[in-house]
Amino acid sequence: MTLTKATYSMITGAPANVLDFGAVGDGVANDRDAIQAAFDASDVVCFPAGTYYVGQLASGATAIDLRGKGNNITILTQGFVELVCETTNTSETSFFILRPTDGETSSNFYCDPIRFRDTGFVGDYPYRGAVGFLIQNGNSNWGNLRFIGIYGRDIYGAIQVSNYNNSDISNNRIRGLFVDEIFVDNGIYGVNLAAQGDGCYFKKIVTYQVYRAFFAYNVQGVEATIYARNNRSTTGVINLGWFTQASTPPDLSGVKVRYVARECVESVNHVLINVIGPDLGTIKGVDLDLDIQDTVTGNRAVNFVYYPTSGGYPDPTTLANTITDIVIRGRVEDASNTIYSEANFTTPGRITLLSTNIPVAASAYNNFVFSTVRTYATTWTASSVNPAIGNGTLSAEYSVSDGLCIVSIQLIAGSTTTFGTGVWSFALPITNRGALPSFGTARASDGGTFYVGAAYASGTVAQVAFNATLLAQNTVPFSWGSGDVLNLTVTYPI
Predict the structure, then answer these.
(1) Which residues in 36-141 belong to E strands, given as ranges?
(2) For residues 38 and 41, what is the distance between their CA atoms, to the nearest angstrom?
(3) Predicted confidence (pLDDT) per residue in 203-219, tens digit
């Protein structure tokens, strides 16, 4: 005889089936009380396939309250399971809220794939919508939460991890969220780690028409892979920062993000790395792997910013640097989508740039030390008639260290190279911001005969002198021809 009963109610210790507590799952009847009753009765709750309407949610309301429910909560879903609500105002609401009792140190929370939709969602400011899971800390270290899949459409966000009631976030931490897949279609956030959520792993976050796909402040040891399409205009699709809190927050450190962006049509910073004062915490040990295709000219691939207050405007006021040990790799399709800095730090932070096809704006060098040597396209001009490289070669590279730019340029004349008339100048990659010219070395070669001179950088160009009165040009230090070589190296402040 085949058992056909769809519930577990006849089995002692089996999951509580929401249908046994009165839920209907037709998307019309309000199933909120029935679902809550199932969780009140058991730590293991099963949702058969269906659409479960949980009613209207007013200011700060939650549909299903799992606060203080203890360890080992398990949510099982059978097929397509979607929870639907209707938010009625702009205050933060949630489908599920989780918070430990005081002293609780482990949750062992597990959730099968589940879907959320908010019919009251408003995606333009002032925003309105419900977050799938609102996870809050208590007076203890708490964590170990596993989600197989969270899928949201017209929602505020999939997961928000935050501080409850201004507790001591330096000691009371949420740790260990593991999520296989998140998908948000039309929302504000994908994931929001608001000063809570250490040691989290997000295998795949996919967003479409979302403002902030990944938001992480004051957390440590976090890894995420994000695929974002059609990002909405925002200060940061990936927002990484340190933010002054009521209690001393930890540094943001040990964060690894792989970010793929496609079909961008609005104004965005792809990655925003920011410190929000007035106290200055540290952002360090951030690893970014970028794959950005963006048709909007001037969108910044990475932007470094200082905000004096939350919700304020970027402040270029000079202050000590607290952002350092940033690793950036990958590719950025549009050369205008640069690494940029709106901050003006007095001490340099370290950036390791592992790819040559990520553009860097000159502003960034005022604040950071880039560890890699990069090539750039210099221009060769003369004071009267400009030369032309023809079939010769003109190569240039530079690096930045401790607020200094080191430039090397090599010119090898070819058979079709023309040398112009007047004093030669070579464009620098970054403006010399020193009050005085900066000097280096130069060497010219003509058929095996070498001439030693001095290179100097002033403003935006470098020139070469072979004595007090002779500057390199078509006839100095010799009449230039095919096969002749000029090398110069100069270091100057930026």
Answers:
(1) 44-57, 62-65, 74-87, 93-98, 109-111, 114-118, 130-136
(2) 5
(3) 999 999 999 999 999 99
Question: How far is it, in rounded angstroms, from Cα 22 to Cα 35?
Answer: 8
Query: And the tokens for 405?
Result: 């730019």
Q: Which residue has the higher pLDDT, 70 or 44?
A: 44
Tokens of 149: 């899949």
d(CA 386, CA 380) in angstroms, rounded, equals: 8
Regarding the domain delimited by 380-493, which CATH topology (the fold level of the hierarchy) does it fall under?
Immunoglobulin-like (2.60.40)
Buried b (16+ CB within 10 A) or exposed e, 294-330: beeeebbbbbbbbbeeeeeeebeeebebbbbebbbeb
Task: Return the closest-CA partner of residue 349 out of 335, 364, 362, 360.
Answer: 364
Backbone angles phi, psi at 484, to 5 degrees: -70, 150
Distance CA 73, CA 70 (A): 7
Class of residue 96 by CB neighbours under 10 A (exposed 0-12, middle 13-18, buried 19+): buried
Dist CA 19 CA 34 (whole Å) = 8
CB atoms inside a 10 Å sphere around CB 172: 19
Structure tokens, 29: 């009847």
**pLDDT, tens digit (0-9, with 9 covering 90-100), for 158-187:** 999 998 876 677 778 899 999 999 999 999
The CATH T-level fold of domain 16-372 is Pectate Lyase C-like (2.160.20)
Going from N- to C-terminal start, the domains of the chain cover: 16-372, 380-493
Q: Write the DSSP symbol of residue 467.
A: S
pLDDT at position 200 over 60:
yes
Complete DSSP assignment for 193-250: EES--BS-EEEEEEEEEEEEEEEEES-EEEEEEEEEESPPSBS-SEEEEEE--SS-PP
Side chain identity at residue 454, one-letter code: A
Compute the distance between CA of residue 196 and CA of residue 218 in angstroms, rounded to an integer. Answer: 7
At residue 468, φ and ψ (nearest 5 deg) are -60, -25
Can you tell me the distance from the alpha carbon of 380 to that of 54, in angstroms, rounded to the nearest whole number?
Answer: 69
- Peptide bond preceding 493: is omega within 30 degrees of 0, i.e. cis? no
Rounded Cα gap, residues 262 and 200, in angstroms: 25
Given a contact cutoff of 8 angstroms between Cβ atoms, the answer to whether 50 and 81 are in contact is: yes
State yes or no: pLDDT of 246 exceeds 90. Answer: no
- Tokens for 308, please give them: 């004096």
